[in-house]
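look at this fold:
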Amino acid sequence: MDYKLTSKDKLTELAKSNGIETWNELTEFIKNLPYGRNKNRTDFRLVLSEKKGTCSSKHALLKSIADLNNVPNIDLVIGIYRMTELNTPKIGNELTKNSIEFIPEAHCYLKINGKRTDLTSGQSEFMKIEKDIIKEKLIEPNQVAEFKVDYHKNFIKLWLNETKSKFEFEQIWQIREKCIANLTE
């Protein structure tokens, strides 16, 4: 089912300025934008103006526009999953180089009518990480910046402690950042 975007707010108007008239057109447009961090992670308009975004910015934008246009049954989710070189191949071999099986990674996606939907890119397939989901939490779009980062960091610190890892938090976070940089290339 499709929904016409009828709201007169700035976000919906920005989407319409890109020739987008419906929810399905919007989701198709967003998933085909390249992966990349925006200049300001709290300004979702940048996904449309910079023509790129991350899992966080793209899905926060979609949830925001869905809410503004009364598109029903759209939830924004942070899922913590076991990021491996197998389920996230573009991260390169950073984990192998450091003798790490996985790093808990925070990934944002939507639940549309209860079905997990990843619109990060045209190649995104939720099935690749589904069996590696550790924890999920529903959030609001404004939580994809500071809250998501804090939630993720706290999760990793707890994980390092529980697994009695030889790594310090800063080391793991640095390895993780290299993995994410590889995704952008």
Summary: The CA atoms of residues 78 and 108 lie 5 Å apart.
